[in-house]
Design goal:
- The structure is a homotetramer.
- The relative contact order of chain A is 0.22.
- By secondary structure, chain A is an alpha+beta fold.
- The first copy, chain A, is built from three helices and six strands, in the order H-H-E-E-H-E-E-E-E.
- Helices cover about 20% and strands about 45% of the residues of chain A.
- The first copy, chain A, has a six-stranded antiparallel β-sheet.
- Chain A has a single domain, classed as Roll (Thiol Ester Dehydrase, Chain A).
- The longest helix of chain A is centred in the middle third of the chain and has 16 residues.
- Chains C and D meet through helix 2, helix 3 and strand 3 of C and helix 2, helix 3 and strand 3 of D.
């Protein structure tokens, strides 16, 4: 599965799209995504919602863990938030830490435009045998 | 701070609202919220996105941890997903496990309409001294 | 596999024994263990070491997750510590939250003699197909 | 507080000593420790016990988070185990990811003699204002 096919598959991710998340890059075991923050991402304290930060990180994790062309589903995630953010763009980079036939581990760093770490995410995925369903060419 | 004031404050949570999450109940140390699933919550595999499940759980955690009337911010969360869901309503209940002047721990169970456990969430909040900003009465 | 066989198998756990941990009870999906604290369990601040608390919780998790008679290995654990302890006995109870053919989720509560929550532990196990090796009868 | 004072303080960690853990190096925000495995570290399946791996990682985390000379206590830890180990030495390196006056985040990598990742640990510490108690010079 090449990068264009992966990008086509992940355009079907409706919650990521609804949240304004964009896939920037994908290579085997790696993904980069971004989220331009707007009022819709804020919580009651006027800072970026933990759910928006998580969804960005989880999306990058999903892309990286499915980048080998077989289905991987999230089974555990751990998120630590270090810095409150109000505006600008959040950037997430997911990197594969380990992988065996059934399990894959990923670390995702979420940074702001200044490059400061906003959140650190660990993701554990269960890897199935079935290939990722490829959408038909447009 | 009474329940009506807390509900007014959390109506200001724009990402929860954007995600279709509704606050059902809040009492000191407890909150219940729900998310009626629609196409917008699905990922590329046509199942409810981990980000949507997390945002629901995180919202219930935020309400419960702020229910004492002082600001509490999430510092660590752990989410385990047990069951894939496609439709119906997701229900989250957050319960306070422990609390001291600076830290609060919460467990959130996310269930589907059948009452099956969809995800289990642990949330750790840092408790500040400042009161939660109360929105002016309408 | 009956309770006596499980107890015989877990007597082979040398690090638990070295740490002074005792198995109190095991039924399918459930285990209870205890750790009588002594000087050997303290850290530099003279409080029970996080490693000792974890090892107690992890042991109860291992017993509960292997209680169905097939091998289960820990893949992710999350530990939140709520209370510092110096003396007395720590008690851990592991309960199965969910289980499918490949994965099992467990919550472990660690309490002191007063019944106060000392730590909360989430454990995720990968379940293999092979039976737990039964030690020969004595 | 210099490195010799920190090493003197951590020699008081009795559970680490009981477990055979040795402090190799400490600098501000960083610590390295090792655990030469022996029969005492094995579980019922004859592999290194999760509790032994955790205690090694947690010790490195404790040293790194206390390396600034004020007391830091663990409040949340997340451990993912990637590889079963039976023999040799385990090596843990703790690195500071972020730090503010109240909270510090640390990542610990545990590797075997071949350099393979055995486990990945995230630690969140609550930082107190009091200085670390310095043991009297010998």
């Amino acid at each position: 599965m090449d990068s264009a096919q992966l990008q086509a598959f992940f355009r079907r991710d409706r919650y990521a799209a609804h949240s304004g998340i964009e896939l920037v890059e994908v290579t085997p075991g790696y993904a980069k995504a971004r989220l331009p923050l707007s009022a819709v991402h804020l919580n009651g304290l006027d800072i970026a919602h933990g759910g928006a930060i998580f969804t960005l990180a989880d999306f990058a994790f999903a892309v990286a863990s499915n980048s080998h062309g077989t289905i991987a589903v999230a089974i555990n995630t751990n998120l630590t938030i270090m810095k409150a953010t109000r505006a600008g763009t959040l950037w997430a980079e997911a990197r594969e830490v380990s992988k065996n036939p059934r399990l894959g581990n990923y670390t995702v760093e979420v940074r702001d435009d200044a490059g400061d770490l906003v959140a650190l995410f660990q993701g554990l995925a269960y890897r199935k045998s079935e290939p990722l369903p490829v959408p038909p060419a447009a």
